[in-house]
Design a protein that fits this description.
By secondary structure, this protein is mainly beta. Helix content is 0%, strand content 49%. It is built from no helices and 15 strands. It has strands at 2-3, 9-16, 19-28, 34-39, 46-51, 57-65, 72-75, 82-89, 95-102, 109-116, 122-125, 128-129, 147-148, 154-158, 166-168. Strands 1, 2, 3, 4, 5, 6, 7, 8, 9, 10, 11 and 12 form a twelve-stranded antiparallel beta sheet that branches. A three-stranded antiparallel beta sheet has the order 13-14-15, with no helix packed on it. The chain is globular, with a radius of gyration of 20 Å.
Length: 175
Amino acid sequence: MNYDGIRRPIQLQTVNGPSNIVGFEHSYDPENNKVNERKLHDPTNSELYQYDSAYRLTNFERGTLNAGGTTVTAQTSTTDALQDKDWTLDGVDNWQSVVGLSAGAEGNFQTANRLHTNFNEIFSVGGNSLPGEATSGEEMVPSANFNNDNNGNQLVAPKPEGSGGRITDDRLLFT
């Protein structure tokens, strides 16, 4: 294991004789954000990260990195692996849109556009209002079908009628 001058891990490697079992190299920006992870054992699935001026993650790419680790030269071909994901955030860190591309079927994009209320609660996903909600701009009144934690944070909500499944909080959507 190797560290840089401020004790961030920059190389982790497990070897068996001359064989590399698993290994990673990490690079960071001046604000300590990880900008790439080169997978020495599987270079075609290395990762690149980009941030906005508020140091929020706005882009993720997976594939083969160039020598400097600044661009993905070829996206991963691992079936169903996430190749690219872009987040558009508003000033209070709400996801206004999320676009993801997975390897496999051509054009396998997943897109979610969101609207939020004045209380930072999700009002709609993909233009469909969530059940039991007021119209945009009005005070949002959660329906009895919403699951909240003890602090009132929305954890799970039903998806709009006919779409199947459930909408979960940002930590689980598009994982």
